[in-house]
């Protein structure tokens, strides 16, 4: 990660998109304490949790939970679903086994599964059902933030829609925030309030979801949208050209090797984040203001032409 600065409000969904290796999962792992940043800070209600010790991290688990990509690997195959869900309740709240199992059953019913399945093992469920169990586990501690790391990419398309609708319903009911990590900007379009686009560990565009997906400001964001499958014919100029991986240099733009609108300075000058539209920003030289000297010369030329005429 390199200079990424993001804010997530209560009850909000921030979509984090980008191709493989862009830094999406790394950012999520840093929030969970699974990766330690070498610089910068992570704040929760103003409290710096960047280098929180293990004991504090265990407490933070009540505030930050995660739903992983693989529903087959995120559940212990040797334990029943009930035991898996009851464990955090007994650890964090000191619940008795009976109370923990009761609450586990309620959590399963909330995600559309019968409470009776607490006695079954993960191998007895489909992929979509396992992901529902993983969601139930994440919500048991009533977190403020749920990190969803590609939660639908391993599922069939029909099941993906069901899981996305479930996530939206649960957020409306319980009021927590999502950090939704995905390589599919079309999925994020239907779930998020705001979108942040990462490339080679850098934030290249961020803003309200409608603004970013309907009128993207960065050429990389436009390339991601052009890559979304569609039944409509796209114009040739919107198709991203094949090119080598993004440049990971301290200078210049990481999209310089693929950008169809590249400028001379794109390879040597790092573009800062500039305002675009209402509440959006993009790191692109195409949005740089014209130099004052050039504007002045143009004004004088027009004035002279007008006088001669």
UniProtKB/TrEMBL annotation:
GO biological process: peptide transport; transmembrane transport
Region forming the signal peptide: none
Chain spans, region Disordered: 230-249
Keyword Transport: yes
Residue ranges occupied by any ABC transporter domain in the UniProt entry: 1-225
Keyword Transport among record annotations: yes
A family per Pfam: oligo_HPY
Keywords per UniProt: ATP-binding, Nucleotide-binding, Plasmid, Transport
Molecular function, one GO term: ATP binding
Family recorded in the similarity comment: Belongs to the ABC transporter superfamily.
Classification via NCBIfam families: oligo_HPY
Protein name: Oligopeptide/dipeptide ABC transporter, ATPase subunit
Organism: Streptantibioticus cattleyicolor (strain ATCC 35852 / DSM 46488 / JCM 4925 / NBRC 14057 / NRRL 8057)
């Amino acid at each position: 990660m390199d200079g990424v600065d993001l804010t997530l409000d209560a009850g909000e969904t921030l979509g984090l998109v980008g191709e493989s290796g862009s830094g999406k999962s790394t950012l999520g792992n840093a929030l969970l304490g699974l990766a330690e940043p070498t610089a910068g800070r992570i704040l929760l209600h103003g409290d710096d949790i960047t280098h929180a010790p293990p004991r504090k991290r265990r407490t933070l688990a009540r505030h930050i939970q995660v739903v992983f990509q693989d529903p087959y690997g995120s559940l212990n195959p040797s334990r029943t679903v009930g035991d898996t869900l009851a464990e955090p309740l007994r650890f964090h709240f000191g619940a008795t086994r009976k109370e923990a199992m009761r609450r586990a059953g309620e959590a399963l019913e909330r995600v559309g599964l019968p409470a009776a399945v607490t006695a079954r093992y993960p191998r007895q469920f489909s992929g979509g059902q396992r992901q529902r169990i993983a969601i139930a586990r994440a919500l048991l501690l009533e977190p403020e933030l749920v990190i969803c790391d590609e939660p639908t990419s391993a599922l069939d398309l029909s099941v993906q829609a069901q899981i996305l609708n479930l996530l939206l319903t649960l957020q409306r009911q319980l009021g927590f925030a999502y950090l939704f990590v995905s390589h599919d900007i079309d999925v994020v379009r239907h779930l998020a309030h705001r979108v942040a686009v990462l490339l080679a560990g850098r934030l290249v565009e961020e803003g309200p979801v409608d603004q970013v997906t309907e009128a993207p400001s960065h050429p990389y964001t436009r390339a991601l949208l052009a890559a979304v499958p569609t039944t409509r014919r796209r114009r040739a100029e919107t198709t991203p050209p094949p090119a080598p991986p993004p440049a990971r240099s301290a200078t210049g733009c990481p999209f310089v090797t693929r950008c169809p609108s590249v400028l001379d300075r794109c390879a040597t000058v790092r573009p800062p984040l500039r305002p675009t539209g209402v509440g959006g920003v993009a790191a692109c030289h195409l949005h740089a203001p014209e130099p004052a000297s050039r504007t002045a010369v143009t004004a004088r030329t027009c004035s002279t032409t007008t006088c001669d005429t």
